[in-house]
Design a protein that fits this description.
- The chain is of the alpha/beta class and 544 residues long.
- It has 3 domains: 23-99 and 236-429, Rossmann fold (3-Layer(aba) Sandwich); 107-226, no CATH class; 457-544, no CATH class.
- It is built from 12 helices and 24 strands.
- The protein has helices at residues 20-25, 50-57, 77-86, 190-194, 238-244, 310-316, 353-366, 392-400, 431-447, 458-477, 486-489, 501-505; strands at residues 29-34, 45-47, 74-75, 91-96, 107-110, 122-126, 136-146, 153-163, 169-179, 188-189, 204-207, 225-226, 255-259, 262-263, 278-279, 294-298, 329-333, 336-339, 347-350, 385-386, 403-409, 413-416, 490-493, 512-515.
- The strands form 6 sheets. An 8-stranded mixed β-sheet has the order 2-4-1-13-16-17-21-22. A 5-stranded mixed β-sheet has the order 10-9-8-7-12. The chain has a 3-stranded antiparallel β-sheet with strand order 3-14-15.
- The N and C termini lie far apart (90 Å).
Amino acid sequence: MPITYRRPGVYLEESLLVNTADTASTFTVACFVGVAGQGPILSPTRIDSWSDYVSTFGTFDPITPPAPATAKVQSYLPFAVYSFFQNGGRTAYIIRAASALVNEQGTASFIPVNNPGPVLAFNIRALSAGTWGNKLKYSLATQSTVGSGATAEDVYVIQVLLTNANGIDEVVETFSGLSTSGAIPGTRRVDSAINDQNSGSAYVRVDGVNQALPRQPAPTTGAPVALTGGVDPKIPDQSALTASAVYVGSVDGPVIVNIVGYHSDVSLIDTSSAASSYVSATVPSSTWPDRSDIFVVNDSAPPRLPGQTSSAYKSSITQLSANPGDSYCASYTPWIIVPHPSRVGATMSIPPGGGMMGVTARVDATVGVFRAPAGVIGGISNAVGVSTKFTDTEMGDLNASNVNVVRIVPGAGVCIMGARTRKTYGADRYISARRTLIFVKEVMKRSTQFAIFENNDQRLWSALSMSADRVLRPLWEAGGLKGTSTAQAYYIRCDDTINTPGVIAAGEVRMELGVALQYPAEFVIIRLTQFDRGTFTTEVQPNA
């Protein structure tokens, strides 16, 4: 509320401005779509670290598909996610693609031994489908008993065990203070505790709780009980990968999407059949017709074949020409060479999308979304080389085709040396310009929520104009907009010229923003000429 100044003295006021760097640091949320050996199917799952990914979706090991398939599948999803976090990424959503939904999860049932029947107490199931759930076990032990006789109820503890690669059962989770009814003070109902989205299990869930038992639930399981019946889903083909991307639309806020490919036969990697065994996909931004804040990273080109020339490889990567004219999509090549995260001394080639998205997150956090995620600042930190070194002419051809090239820059490492979208004209042919517009729209949406249902008059228009200025001024001051003054950088219009009586009567308030977007210095041209400094002499005539 306004302050009336009547007493002489010092008055303190607080004005909160939008800090573009702070906002941008939470702006780059990645979304990866790909094949995993475990984890929720077709459900965006948030992870905030590499360890989160491992506990939910598994590691780098090849995937064994269900019968009758015999060849193991090498998915590049874990490598993309690992590169994302290695290069500065903070938050990502993972969508495990599948050809069809399946419900075959590892399951076991707890039946109290001292109840007649026998009577089921509850089911405990693996959190997602797959044979990985068959590696889980659980044990139950009684902590204490409340009451006596037929009204007695046990307080118990459940441990979840996972069989590791050495065949040893490791305790991965412990839940204590559980009861079947949840009525005992200081306890939680078993399904509420284990199924809790924040503090519950990362491996199992509980259902079918029977609260009508004569005694709940009973002493112990003795030896750990194994879960059985888990079945792996089919490995998705290209069309299923594409269809799985639709679920990105359920992720709130701006996201950068990458559909990560896989080799259908791990034995064919680095052979002449590598390209034919590689399955990949990309999607246009029109996949989400109701969204204008999703940016697609396309790295769907197959790997370079052994002995293939750079020119032959360049002509074969037609997949990167997808989505022409789409400023919400960018294409990248070639594959990058990284140290194998789980094999000391080994390297491997992977698609560049995950590293690129990590670089984008890093640049957003340190500079802002208005800075192109390219150049020497765009070094992919975990890359040690590239699978293909294009000539200057080949790079020029690819850049002219709006395909961004990753290459080695002496003194800077492996860098992203392209910043174009798939659009060929306009300011939004550059990634930084398109993402600046996405950023402005998102921050404006957040900062103008207060206006909903306010009286639609001059006071509201002024408040909206002030909110817009608090977004755009810091963006200009940080270098995100052109111009030597705010008048050159942007304009804000929210008055009776656009909020006519008819507009107001329709329940609408309108505001118009104009921004002068920055263009990245894509070409640095230095003209060098010879300068020969001569000696100039002047002849002086004597006086007559």
